[in-house]
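Exercise 7.
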Amino acid sequence: MDMHLNGLDDHFSLPRTRKVEAFRAFSWIARGWQDLAAHPLPSLAHGLLITLLGWGVLLLASHYVHLFTTSITGFLLLAPLGAAGIYELTSEREEGRTTSFAQSIRDLMKNASQLAYFGVVLFMIAIAWERLSAILFALFYGGEAITLHNFVGSLLGEYAGFTIAWVIGGFLLACLVFALTAVSIPMLADREVDTVTAMMTSLRVVAENLPAMIVWAALIVLLTVVGFATYLVGFVLLFPLLGHATWIAYKDLVE
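Solution. The predicted structure, written as tokens, is:
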């Protein structure tokens, strides 16, 4: 593993990374809460914005089952990019500057081109997942009319095979996106680096800290489930909390 990771330096100029203990993620959450409390209004403004966008996406897709289920995944795929403004809030505080929602958006412009490129990458992944989901629905449901009600009712019954295939596909995609975005977007917000370098750094961090990143991913999933269980209202608070914690994780893992 180390040989393959060190080989990345032959092709990319990557920053040095650190190894942390398996349960460091709990410290990231605790320190993220402290950061959120230090500038609550701009942080919650970001959380409210992402919640409103989530409601809009789910509302538009609510009449199409495969779009509704895929939009949830797409929301999760693109959410890390939406947290870039939150990373700027913590950066401003660390530098002793005044924090505000408007200033955090302005600060994103310093590396806007690479953040936009990363957004295109995530958007293409989301589109690919939407197409794959459409194919799976067509194969397993044979063209019959599907409503959200009968879809949920058949998940563990007649269409258990579809459920297994869809969950496995979503899980593998989530693992890939998590590995690519674990520290890459805060890195793009913090430094003038290119998207590929940021993604390769993120892959290295995940590979070198697999136990810690599994715990971190599990915490993200748990808090995300809470957010969806509250019809996205919980994301007003949970989204900025995860954003601040992700910035702290990035600073902890990348020199």
